Amino acid sequence: MSMRHVYLDAMGGDNAPECTVLGALEALRADPDLKITLAGTVSAIEPYLTDSEDVRERILLVDTPDIITNHDAPVMAVRQKKQSAVVMGMLAVREGEADAFVSAGSTGATLAGGMFRLGRIQGIDRPALAPLLPNGKDFFCLIDCGANVDSLPQYLPQFGVMGSAYMKTVRGLETPRVGLVNIGAEAEKGNALVKAAYPLMEQASFHFIGNVEGRDITADVADVVVTDGFYGNLILKFMEGVAGTLMSIIKKELLADTRGKLGALIAKPAFARVKKTMDYTEVGGAPLLGVQGVVVKAHGSSNAHAIACAIRQATRMIDNQVVQMIQNTL
Fold it and tell me: Is 3 helix (H, G, I), strand (E, B) or coil?
């Protein structure tokens, strides 16, 4: 396998640069065919590289004096902060100097950078964020989860094309099932957006299974769940909240009395597996599909392992040529 090069925004995220650098080291140790550019404030990055002799030759440091924060207006920041990791990373991917860009920083800046510095795939009106979420059996792709809070009907079948291509290449599904989020299973149900999108989804090249109600999203009825970014973001964050609340309730009740504590001790391995299944850090991040390059947006609160998983996700997209697959499908 040839060497893959990931450009990492080392200053992006709530726990940067410590967790971004340590996550990069974890990824490098797990993958000998990987090299990483750490972009950010070099003086802040270097203290976390003291124990990196085994992989140091596969690390490049780039000093980026401009830092884009969540308080910056994304489009203006991308236009004005040209020496930021986001802008320089996107340009590195565009010029073929890097194979992928990964960031846990500003979502808006990552979206703007992908749109204006990489550009859209021909035939795609709007790129979309597409995280993988658990459904009890494996994972499904939720697209869009926040890139487009206002969508037009023609965007949704494009999301279906991209999500289907992603699940084919990265997850190995031969014929991904694509569903449209709605308040009912019937084609005539829903608001103006989904009513107009439904016939377009029927005419698309992917395997469309119809509408998917909220209660069925996690029931393994669809491999790709299509919605606009407003509702997709609500679904994503609601799932994260419910998972956290359920784990807290279960822990509280199990520790409430002696019988519960004994049962918890016996069931501890099973609970650990459940927690791992529900843990977003195991997935790593959401790919930004529809731009001309591999971009993965990691969760802002990512720890080191989550960053490593986001990097691994990027390498899978590189290896499986997800961007080329979307282009070919269109």
Answer: coil
